[in-house]
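Standup notes
- HV: blocked on the assembly model, inputs below
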Amino acid sequence: AQSVSQHNHHVILSEAASLELGCNYSYGGTVNLFWYVQYPGQHLQLLLKYFSGDPLVKGIKGFEAEFIKSKFSFNLRKPSVQWSDTAEYFCAVNAGRGSTLGRLYFGRGTQLTVWP
Amino acid sequence: EAGVTQFPSHSVIEKGQTVTLRCDPISGHDNLYWYRRVMGKEIKFLLHFVKESKQDESGMPNNRFLAERTGGTYSTLKVQPAELEDSGVYFCASSQASGGVRNNEQFFGPGTRLTVL
């Protein structure tokens, strides 16, 4: 079965520190990759996505992610975090076929806490 | 444009009772998904509707869960009878039909937090 691994469950940083959140998936075929974020008290919202083309994708709020096919990875990065980035971050993969085409497989989430 | 809405936001019930969760997708979105997150674990897929038809219900945990989407608009997820392990946050998401279901962003609702005592 497909699985998505997020290596860090809780990350604590000071403002202006750089961020990298790891994500690995197990599916070997064609995948679509996503990072979602859930700010306190808000809905899950899409940060960025990768379908094809340039493996370095840029999202909202200065986030970017790099798809490395050989490593089955899609790590999320931000050069300088802000207090407002405090949230839970979810990596998700769409690797389905046929009737399962729409389903997303999620990692466990990483809680990011940024101290001002 | 209104987003995905879910009702109720919280529900506390006793083991053995019945609960019905409701999801209203974004208007015009043919695809509707239910997911569940048990505390401390990953968000897991439950099922996928395309309009009123169940496209994929392989994630439903057992026959105590029944999802419907009559008329292809809002959806309900009923748990009967509820068990302790059903506690968690139930998310609904919707996406457009055009461009292929795999390529469409899923927009999530705020979730319903279900607690079974």
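- HV (later): unblocked. Chain B touches chain A at residues 3-4, 31, 33, 35, 40-45, 48, 55-56, 58-59, 91, 93, 95, 100-103, 105-106, 108-111 (CB under 8 Å). Chain B has a mean pLDDT of 92.
- Next: hand off to the docking folks.
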